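User: Predict the complex with zinc ion.
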Amino acid sequence: MKRTNLPPQKEASKRRIAGHAQQDHILDPYQRRQKLEDGTLCPQCGAAYRHGRWQWAARAKTDHEELCPACRRINDKFPAGILALKGAFARDHREELIHLARHQEEAEKTEHPLNRIMSIEEGPSEILIKTTDIHLPRRIGEAITRAFHGALEESFEEDGYFLRVTWRRES
Ligand SMILES: [Zn+2]
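Assistant: Here is the predicted structure with zinc ion placed in the model:
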């Protein structure tokens, strides 16, 4: 039997991920293993760690301050996800696509403070939307597909805890 040149773990890591649940057992290196003090405040974005998760809350006085994982990724310029928008249609409809991406981010961020757009880079052949989490690229990609059709493809690298989603429409 012919063997493939790729090591098996490399092949497995390129598989298509169907849903969020499959990724939840894989550890984000930016998530702390030990619990934070309840009420810990991120001095950069103002999110508060309460009841085991980061939430938006009115600022309260606290002795415990620590950067949240999203702000640490932003400061490190180290995205967890990238959505690449490609093709002639993407080039001709930049504004609409970016507007829709921002709208999706707003909706997501309200519920999940750690899920944010880090940067939007407009290159000659693609728009790159970098995110602080692995859920937002898919959420934005699916919204774009609902609105504008096109083709969506994704690959998740378990080793690097990194999701890359590509959306493409040529005409
Ligand atoms: Zn923060």
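Confidence is low (pLDDT under 50) at residues 1-22.
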